[in-house]
TrEMBL record:
Residues 94-192 form the HTH araC/xylS-type domain. Its cofactor is Zn(2+). The keyword Nucleus does not apply. Keywords: Activator, DNA damage, DNA repair, Methyltransferase, Transcription, Transcription regulation, Transferase. It catalyses: Hydrolysis of alkylated DNA, releasing 3-methyladenine, 3-methylguanine, 7-methylguanine and 7-methyladenine. The keyword Transcription regulation applies. Gene3D superfamilies: DNA Methylphosphotriester Repair Domain, DNA-3-methyladenine glycosylase AlkA, N-terminal domain, Helix-hairpin-Helix base-excision DNA repair enzymes (C-terminal), Homeodomain-like, Hypothetical protein, domain 2. This is DNA-3-methyladenine glycosylase II. It comes from Leucobacter coleopterorum. Residues 183-214 are annotated as: Disordered. Its EC number is 3.2.2.21.
């Protein structure tokens, strides 16, 4: 083994103190490699801490593996939920990490990723090794390996099916990578699952055919997770044909994947109440989901879309630490533990829907978005499919292809709103990037240059679609009322200390203000 030095951005003394104190708040953000054992751990690992000279600290599990370490069997660092640290940055390395996390290497390869980011493969590799400690291929391999282990533990899929569901190109590559990551062949890992791709969950609606694989999983996230508030958000923004909110406490949502349109069904009743999560002291909670997929190859894209939708990579303790001493937000943290910042399952759909929702009620916006989904559904490739009862996301090219007058008549819009929608659809169809790897500054500038789109729309798209945790719609009326200010300038000035989490601050303020308003109306 020839461990590389730790990335320069990590403070060794701070990391070692965290590991010595078994501080779980650092789990997933820092990894400890022990040169005397060849093992890498979470900072909170209960094993006896090694001497400082035997420690190396890394910002990713992939960097540990690239340095020659394998995962600890005791603390399971591979099972730590993701982190949004890379979402708070807008530079090249952060954009690359986000795209790899979304499966770009599997979809287009390292060369395709470099082209997307407008750099050479060599430059991309060098930058990632310098800052993350691992190459693009190593980051992608580690992502696949961790996903494969979760599928091994939670499902009864064959190892061959798991290999391809996790994105491996061959069974041999799967075996080699798992041995490199965990020091054991896939067949040597424990299997605890009782699910099966052909097993039917308790689904009275039965929306899928037997040919569509179905996986029951628990997606891990850091505790606490405010499930009730998340479900309420999804219900309030449910789009006809794209979402179903059932009376039995479940919800189902169309998720667009390379093979067509998947459906995720979430059993909210099976998520412990926030008070129970806090009382138990557990560091993570599993969100029970059932994925109905066009094919097993769509497993990873579907899981990542659900994680983005539910903000499962958030770190509540990190957000709480940022706001704990703030006179405005300090009390809200106690009132709303585990609140998340929901993301967009489909960036283009969200941007179009945001334009439709300008200056109309939430109910009216849902109706318009339903018409958009029904009238401009993306045509899926032959052999792929859309689950019965659900629609694929709207295709911007189809929206842009008809006249403004026809668009106005078909959706029931004002002419000005139809013109804005058409302009945005044309920009999206012509390559306006609102995905995980987008240049956020450029995307904001291009959106703001479109006629009919102002700062409020731009920041809302940045928050939900671009995934920027620091997005801040300072002109939002509810936000300004919650802050007790009357101008954008005042709202911006108040929020400077909340960076880089102004998006989370906005979510706290919105939630608290709307609940207080609802209480007043009930009196």
């Amino acid at each position: 083994m020839n461990p590389a030095s730790s990335p320069a951005t990590l403070d060794f003394d701070a990391c070692y103190r965290a590991a010595s104190g078994r501080d779980a708040r650092w789990d997933g953000r820092v990894y400890l490699g022990v040169t005397s054992t060849g093992i890498y751990c979470r900072p909170s690992c209960p094993a006896r801490k090694p001497r400082p000279e035997n420690c190396r600290f890394y910002s990713s599990a992939a960097a540990c593996v690239a340095a020659g370490f394998r995962a600890c069997k005791r603390c399971r660092p591979d099972a730590v939920p993701g982190t949004r640290d890379w979402d708070a940055r807008g530079d090249l390395v952060a954009r690359a990490v986000r795209r790899i996390r979304d499966g770009a290497v599997d979809a287009v390869g390292v060369a395709g990723l470099a082209d997307e980011l407008a750099v050479s493969e060599r430059h991309l590799r060098r930058m990632l090794i310098e800052e993350v400690g691992a190459s693009p291929l190593q980051l992608a391999r580690t992502r696949r390996a961790h996903a494969a282990r979760a599928l091994i533990e939670e499902t009864e899929l064959s190892l061959t099916d798991i290999a391809f569901a996790a994105g491996f190109g061959s069974v041999r590559q799967f075996g080699d990578t798992m041995r490199e990551e965990f020091g054991v062949a896939p067949s040597g890992l424990p299997r605890r699952g009782s699910g099966s791709p052909q097993r039917r969950a308790q689904d009275p609606e039965g929306p899928t055919s037997d040919e569509r694989p179905k996986l029951a999983l628990r997606l891990r996230t850091r505790a606490p997770f405010a499930a009730e508030e998340m479900r309420a958000y999804l219900a309030a923004h449910a789009i006809p044909g794209r979402d179903e909110i059932a009376a039995d406490g479940t919800s189902a949502h169309a998720i667009d994947v390379p093979g067509g349109t998947a459906v995720v069904r979430i059993d909210w009743h099976d998520v412990p109440q926030v008070s129970q999560q806090l009382e138990s002291g557990a560091d993570a909670v599993g969100i029970p989901v059932t994925l109905t997929l066009p094919s097993l190859a769509d497993t990873m894209p579907a899981i990542q879309a659900v994680r983005r939708l539910l903000d499962l990579d958030a770190d509540p303790s990190q957000v709480a630490e940022a706001f704990s001493g703030d006179p405005v937000l300090g009390n809200l943290l106690q009132r709303w533990p585990g609140l998340r910042l929901p993301g967009a399952r489909h960036p283009q759909e969200f941007a179009l829907g945001t334009v439709l929702g300008q200056q109309v009620s939430l109910a009216a916006a849902r109706t318009l978005q339903g018409r958009l989904a029904a009238g401009f559904e993306t045509k899926v490739a032959s052999g792929a499919g859309v689950a019965a009862g659900f629609k694929a996301a709207p295709d911007p090219a189809l929206v842009a292809a008809i006249s403004v007058d026809d668009l106005r008549e078909q959706l029931g819009l004002t002419r000005a709103r139809a013109a804005t929608l058409s302009t945005l659809a044309s920009a999206l169809a012509n390559g306006l990037d609102l995905g995980a790897g987008a240049d956020r500054d450029r995307a904001r500038a291009e959106l703001l240059a479109l006629r009919g789109i102002g700062p409020w729309t731009v920041e809302l798209v940045a928050m939900r679609a671009l995934g920027d945790p620091d997005a801040y719609p300072a002109g939002d009326l509810i936000l300004r009322r919650a802050l007790g200010v009357t101008s954008d300038r005042e709202a911006i000035a108040l929020a400077q200390s909340w960076r880089p989490y102004r998006g989370y601050a906005t979510q706290y303020l919105w939630s608290d203000f709307l609940e207080a308003t609802a209480r007043k109306e009930q009196k």
